[in-house]
């Protein structure tokens, strides 16, 4: 059940992260944004477990998932911007 919860939180975190961090280099599609939000939630979950913030089987909290989604969106925007410039 924790994976499903992480996906749901990641979906919401991706939407919130898109509103917090809009930009021309960010993915404009709703599906791509939510997928990156889900990836960010998984990154936040596993990073939090590695740092001892969460126990195994616990997903990232909503704030952690939003931070993870913002990080993934920033990385995506960085690489997408380089690809357009080349």
From TrEMBL:
Please report the record's description of how this protein sits within the membrane: Multi-pass membrane protein
Enumerate the UniProt keywords alphabetically: Cell membrane, Membrane, Transmembrane, Transmembrane helix
Q: Which family does it belong to?
A: Belongs to the UPF0410 family.
Q: Which domain of life is it from?
A: Bacteria
Q: Where in the cell is it found?
A: Cell membrane
Pfam families given for it? Transgly_assoc
**Principal subcellular localization:** membrane
- Recorded protein name is Membrane protein YeaQ/YmgE (Transglycosylase-associated protein family)
Cellular component aspect of the GO annotation:
plasma membrane
Membrane-crossing ranges are: 27-47, 59-79
């Amino acid at each position: 059940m924790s994976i499903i919860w992480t996906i749901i939180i990641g979906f919401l975190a991706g939407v919130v992260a898109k509103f917090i961090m809009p930009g021309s280099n960010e993915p404009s599609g709703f599906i791509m944004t939510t997928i990156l939000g889900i990836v960010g939630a998984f990154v936040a979950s596993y990073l939090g477990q590695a740092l001892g913030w969460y126990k195994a089987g616990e997903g990232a909290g909503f704030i952690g998932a939003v931070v993870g989604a913002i990080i993934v969106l920033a990385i995506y925007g960085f690489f997408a911007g380089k690809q357009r410039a080349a």
